[in-house]
């Protein structure tokens, strides 16, 4: 099974250190003879069975062999280059950052139970097989670190895992049930080797501390559409029953009820196609609720990432295929060129593709490598000539035209899929993509590279569904507010901008009125619409929006909203305005590495936390709107056809255990 790397995984260094032991700390009675060498003044001896097994440097915490058969000369050599001693080199400073603090080691006490917990957390965080504890090489590794560590059985690790699973599930369930604002649900869909579908249910909400939470609550198989696959699936004892269970509307509704999110549920983000029966079932279950949300339909949000992927279509143009093939041969036609090609690959800042990557992304990545290679080594034909000719200028132009559209799509997907980004960040990259698509329509020979006409048509169709809530999220960003939205719409739509601006103002007024009446009740964001439409409710029609807004403002009912919208913008650190973030930084956009300048230091959730008492109604709106998920696709698989975590269903683990392992990894990260 492939291991899944996760930034939040338990550090193996911590695990190794937790297995360390000193007889004195472990209650041992063995005595060691006094070491005569002065080198021991700089080391902490670690004994086992009355004999020194290793030595820990007091300066940098590095562990070295301390056995008498090996002498002490290697300890002296270490002291000469020790990064923790006075006069250490810059290289030593870099290496010392990963070493153990010697003060910690001096007070170290071995804890067998804690070590087992760390080992279990390591397995969960990296989705390792439980059978790793039976691996001979793993046991040898642990024994070399601490010969007296009592290696536990696989059954013990599984018991520990189950305990952690139920503990973390209870904690998350309580957190979701008691959420200060609303909760959104996303449903992702994946395929496996035998083509059964895997559905991933994730909850999204902003907690009482104004922290973004995106946690998987169910990850299960949902059947297969291919009749031939049933033959293979039947070989797995509980696969078919698990698939049938996971794909029924009744089971999906039960997941929602088991987690207690139906009371706070505001909307659902799903990949195409949307399960209308599932949505209707949830709405029906809300009909008897005591909360005001039960009177309205759920907000259903299409998966932005799914829509962006489909812009490229399913067929690559002939000139792009030829360019990819010819330039690959051109870059790898000799050992010198291949070395330079590998240098370019290692320096790319794009996500490295895999065999499971989407076709458009594999093509985009290779074309970006081609462009960067040509820019970095313009004279390579002179220094390392090939027998065959260099690819044509038209092919290079085609590569640039393809990447010009691929870059903003890549950037938009990265932003929208991020676990930490709130919905206020979605407008910027999508607007940039809109501009690039429109500009590309006028490029000569663009039809040979992209079907831009259809791309613009499809994007407009999605934009008409997206723009209203994207704009509301931007208005709730104190750096931009309504003025940014008005400016962009005026630039893009001219005389038609008034309609778009009125709709955004109408939605803000409507939300503010609703929330101001129910600030002490559960959030009711989903009251307004069921599909992200462009229509405004009857009480706030386009012709009445400005009139109602002015009347309510005059009556003081909108004082909080007026104070916020009329107040000063929150200035960014470098004095940039939001509109300028679209500009590419010099030629970096040539190879797609840093297409946009953004102020990553600004934390919008912290701003609303700090200003909640000043704008209580708007803060309640922000807590819900900023939690709207734009994607049902996890960031780890944003450019892939399948989620690697789904491979767990192809291992020896039971399907229920595989699901629990994936969920627990999401909870403890």
Automatic annotation (TrEMBL):
Region feature Disordered, mapped onto this chain: 66-103
GO cellular component labels: nucleus
Main location, first listed in the record: nucleus
GO MF annotation list: DNA binding; protein dimerization activity; zinc ion binding
Matching Pfam families: Dimer_Tnp_hAT, hAT-like_RNase-H, zf-BED
Biased composition (Polar residues): 92-103
Subcellular location(s) of the protein: Nucleus
GO biological process assignments: post-embryonic development
Domain BED-type, first and last residues per copy: 34-89
Annotated signal peptide: none
Keywords, comma-separated and alphabetical: DNA-binding, Metal-binding, Nucleus, Transcription, Transcription regulation, Zinc, Zinc-finger
InterPro entries: hAT-like_transposase_RNase-H, HATC_C_dom, RNaseH-like_sf, Znf_BED, ZnF_BED_domain_contain, Znf_C2H2_sf
Self-association state and partner proteins as the record states: Homodimer.
Protein name: BED-type domain-containing protein
Native organism: Aegilops tauschii subsp. strangulata
Taxonomic lineage: Eukaryota, Viridiplantae, Streptophyta, Embryophyta, Tracheophyta
């Amino acid at each position: 099974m492939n291991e899944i790397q996760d930034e939040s995984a338990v550090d193996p260094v911590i695990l190794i250190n937790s297995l360390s032991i000193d007889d004195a700390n472990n209650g041992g009675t063995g005595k060691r003879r006094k070491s005569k060498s002065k080198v021991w003044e700089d080391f902490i001896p670690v004994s086992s069975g009355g004999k020194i097994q290793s030595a820990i440097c007091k300066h940098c915490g590095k562990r070295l062999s301390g056995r008498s058969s090996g002498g002490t000369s290697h300890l002296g050599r270490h002291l000469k280059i020790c990064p923790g001693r006075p006069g250490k080199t810059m290289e030593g400073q870099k290496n010392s950052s990963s070493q153990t603090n010697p003060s910690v080691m001096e007070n170290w006490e071995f804890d067998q139970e804690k070590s087992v917990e760390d080992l279990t957390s390591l397995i969960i965080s990296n989705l390792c097989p439980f059978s790793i504890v039976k691996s001979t090489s793993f046991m040898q590794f642990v024994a070399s670190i601490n010969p007296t560590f009592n290696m536990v059985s696989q059954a013990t690790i599984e018991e520990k895992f189950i305990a952690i699973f139920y503990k973390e599930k209870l904690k998350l369930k309580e957190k979701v049930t008691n959420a200060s604002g609303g909760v959104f649900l996303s449903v992702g869909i994946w395929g496996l080797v035998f083509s059964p579908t895997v559905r991933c249910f994730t909850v999204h909400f902003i907690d009482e501390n104004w922290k973004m939470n995106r946690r998987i609550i169910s990850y299960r198989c949902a059947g297969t559409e291919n009749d031939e696959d049933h033959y293979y699936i039947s070989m797995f004892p509980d696969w078919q029953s698990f698939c049938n269970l996971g794909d029924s509307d009744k089971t999906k509704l039960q997941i929602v009820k088991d987690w207690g999110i139906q009371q706070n549920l505001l909307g659902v983000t799903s990949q195409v196609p949307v399960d209308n029966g599932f949505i209707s079932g949830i709405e029906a279950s809300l009909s008897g609720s005591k909360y005001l949300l039960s009177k309205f339909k759920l907000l259903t949000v299409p998966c932005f990432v799914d829509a962006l992927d489909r812009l490229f279509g399913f067929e690559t143009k002939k000139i792009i295929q030829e360019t990819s093939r010819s330039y690959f041969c051109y870059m790898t036609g000799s050992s010198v060129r291949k070395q330079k090609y590998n240098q370019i690959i290692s320096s790319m800042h794009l996500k490295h593709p895999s065999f499971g990557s989407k076709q458009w992304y594999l093509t985009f990545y290779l074309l970006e490598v081609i462009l960067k290679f040509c820019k970095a080594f313009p004279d390579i034909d002179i220094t390392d000539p090939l027998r065959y000719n260099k690819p044509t200028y038209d092919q290079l132009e085609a590569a640039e035209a393809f990447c010009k559209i691929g870059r903003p799509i890549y950037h938009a997907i990265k932003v929208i899929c991020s676990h930490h980004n709130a919905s206020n960040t979605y407008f910027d990259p999508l607007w940039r993509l809109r501009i690039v698509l429109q500009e590309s329509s006028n490029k000569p020979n663009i039809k040979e590279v992209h079907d831009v006409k259809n791309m613009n048509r499809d994007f407009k169709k999605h934009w008409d569904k997206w723009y209203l809530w994207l704009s509301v999220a931007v208005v709730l960003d104190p750096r931009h507010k309504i003025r940014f939205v008005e400016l962009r719409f005026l630039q893009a739509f001219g005389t038609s901008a008034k309609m778009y601006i009125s709709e955004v103002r109408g939605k803000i007024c409507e939300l503010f009125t609703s929330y101001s009446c129910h600030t002490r009740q559960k959030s009711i964001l989903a009251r307004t619409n069921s599909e992200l439409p462009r229509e405004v409710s009857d009480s706030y029609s386009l012709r009445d929006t400005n009139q109602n807004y002015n009347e309510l403002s005059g009556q003081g009912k909108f004082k909080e909203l007026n104070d916020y919208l009329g107040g000063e913008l929150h200035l960014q650190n470098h004095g940039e305005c939001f509109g300028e973030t679209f500009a590419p930084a010099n030629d970096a956009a040539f190879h797609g590495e840093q297409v946009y300048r953004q102020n990553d230091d600004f934390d919008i959730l912290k701003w609303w936390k700090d200003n909640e008492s000043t704008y209580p109604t708007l803060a309640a709106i922000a807590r819900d709107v900023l939690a709207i998920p734009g994607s049902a696709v996890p960031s780890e698989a944003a450019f892939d056809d399948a989620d690697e975590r789904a491979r767990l269903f192809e291992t020896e683990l039971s399907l229920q255990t595989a699901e629990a392992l994936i969920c627990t990894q999401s909870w403890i990260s």
